[in-house]
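Supplementary notes for students who missed Thursday's class. We covered one full example, reproduced here. Read the sequence, then the structure, then the short commentary at the end.
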Amino acid sequence: MNTEVSILHHHYPSRLRETVEQKVQPLSKFYDQLTSMHAKLERLNEQHRVELVANVAHGPTLVADGRGETFNAALEDATSKMTTSIKRVHDKHRTERRRQRRTA
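Structure (token representation):
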């Protein structure tokens, strides 16, 4: 899975890029069809915002937005939302494949 981190309108230390990549990489274990993940980091006044965009092969584009008072809180929020979305798409894909086998 390809991972890309973009920082918008603010200077974050380079170690935060590594932190984001370490948090995002384990998401691929939930669904092997993830092709890429793009993380956008932004600071809005006193609030941090992390947006995760995941591309699924032959499937939807998943978007999760996390906000928090600290960067880590925003990253945790976005990661948990993305985990839920990935699991939902994976379960839906498995259910559709089972239905196709039964009707065939």
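Commentary. The chain has a mean pLDDT of 89. Residues 88 and 94 are 10 Å apart (CA to CA). If anything here is unclear, bring it to office hours.
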